[in-house]
């Protein structure tokens, strides 16, 4: 009798447990494969085959379908490559590998099977090689972050085919070549773009004049020519950093939107004088040091409140906060 009761109890608890397992068996199989391919890292110790994978560390299940929709691996002591098996989690919407210095190799092409993927972050890793053009097949992407890796070669022109992007980060790699001409027709939904700290050369695409960015970071590259198309009264730009490049254009007649916050153009070859319109920008945080500017700093707005280092090392800028003009 006791034995029967006990076995009943065990049986019912097993039934209960299997009902409580929300996890999709196929997803569980794939996750265990990923764990194996990453050499069973301590970071994934909670990925126990006997438990519900929806409760595992660094993954989430969709509350309705119970399919794995997020996989966010970060700050992990993991060595090796991104497993091909990540492409077999068809309901993934967000995939992240962040701050894993021992993650090497390239991005596997199996990732293109993730047709629902909205956010892809591979950052602060040692992943290298060219940025693969097949990423342009991930049409649902709204955010692509490949910053702080060892990517080299040119930016693939195909990335401009990602029409739902709101943000793109390619900063802190070793990218070379110029910004592809196709990037002149990036989607109007794009709000921010980071390409700083690379070895990008050439000019910015002409089409950037009709885009509606709020943030552009291109500092520490070898970009040359004129970037005045980024400015104008009808723009919505807030933060622009193109410092430490080879820009060469006349600054004198530019107009700026009221939305402008940060404008950092230090260490370029910009000529002309400071435009009067700068005094109307309420929250301006300007740095035009180390250029070839000349003439009196307009009086008004925030211009006299800025530190003199925002203006120093120019050809002949003068007036507060720099010394008086002769
Ligand atoms: C990372 O894992 C390896 C192998 O498991 C181990 O030898 C090493 O000490 C770990 N490093 C850190 C920083 O935890
Ligand atoms: C990276 O790998 C090296 C050598 O295998 C190991 O000593 C180190 O602890 C690992 N570091 C991290 C943060 O994973
Ligand atoms: C990762 O990159 C860092 C810095 O770029 C380097 O010092 C380190 O040796 C690399 N580790 C591996 C495993 O490639
Ligand atoms: C792109 O965004 C629109 C609007 O949010 C959405 O209807 C469409 O399904 C998205 N495209 C893809 C491929 O996900
Ligand atoms: C701003 O105006 C220019 C010329 O009038 C136009 O080509 C551009 O598309 C406009 N930009 C925005 C963001 O409205
Ligand atoms: C530009 O972006 C701003 C803020 O995101 C938005 O309010 C505005 O309608 C956009 N303008 C155009 C022309 O797309
Ligand atoms: C402007 O940039 C220069 C060069 O990087 C720097 O030395 C200076 O501190 C900056 N000044 C301000 C006010 O940002």
TrEMBL record:
Residues 80-209 form the Disease resistance R13L4/SHOC-2-like LRR domain. Keywords: Leucine-rich repeat, Repeat, Signal. Residues 25-62 form the Leucine-rich repeat-containing N-terminal plant-type domain. Gene3D superfamilies: Ribonuclease Inhibitor. Pfam families: LRR_1, LRR_14, LRRNT_2. InterPro entries: Leu-rich_rpt (IPR001611), LRR_dom_sf (IPR032675), LRR_N_plant-typ (IPR013210), LRR_R13L4/SHOC2-like (IPR055414), PGIP (IPR051848). Belongs to the polygalacturonase-inhibiting protein family. This is Polygalacturonase-inhibiting protein. It comes from Penstemon smallii.
């Amino acid at each position: 009798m006791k034995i029967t009761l006990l076995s009943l109890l065990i049986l019912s608890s097993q039934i209960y447990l299997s009902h409580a397992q929300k996890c999709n068996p196929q997803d569980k199989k794939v996750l265990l494969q990923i764990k194996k391919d990453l050499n069973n890292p301590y970071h994934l110790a909670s990925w126990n085959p006997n438990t519900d994978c929806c409760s595992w560390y660094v993954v989430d299940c969709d509350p309705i379908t119970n399919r794995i929709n997020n996989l966010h691996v970060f700050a992990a002591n993991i060595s090796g490559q991104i497993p091909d098996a990540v492409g077999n989690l068809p309901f993934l919407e967000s995939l992240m590998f962040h701050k894993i210095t021992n993650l090497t190799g390239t991005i596997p092409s199996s990732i293109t099977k993730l047709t629902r993927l909205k956010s892809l972050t591979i950052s602060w890793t040692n992943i290298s090689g060219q940025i693969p053009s097949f990423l342009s097949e991930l049409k649902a992407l709204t955010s692509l972050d490949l910053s702080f890796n060892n990517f080299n070669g040119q930016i693939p022109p195909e990335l401009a085919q990602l029409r739902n992007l709101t943000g793109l980060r390619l900063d802190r790699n070793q990218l070379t070549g110029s910004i592809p001409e196709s990037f002149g027709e990036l989607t109007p939904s794009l709000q921010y773009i980071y390409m700083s700290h690379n070895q990008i050369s050439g000019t910015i695409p002409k089409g950037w004049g009709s885009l509606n960015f709020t943030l552009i970071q291109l500092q520490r590259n070898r970009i040359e020519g004129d970037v005045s198309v980024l400015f104008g009264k009808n723009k919505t730009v807030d933060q622009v950093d193109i410092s430490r490049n080879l820009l060469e254009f006349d600054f004198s007649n530019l107009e700026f939107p009221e939305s402008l916050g940060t404008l950092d153009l230090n260490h370029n070859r910009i000529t002309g004088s400071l435009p009067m319109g700068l005094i109307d920008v309420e929250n301006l945080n300007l740095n035009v040091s180390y250029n070839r500017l000349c003439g009196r700093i307009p009086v008004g707005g925030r211009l006299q409140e800025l530190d003199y280092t925002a203006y120093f090392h120019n050809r002949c800028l003068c007036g507060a906060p720099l010394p008086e003009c002769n």
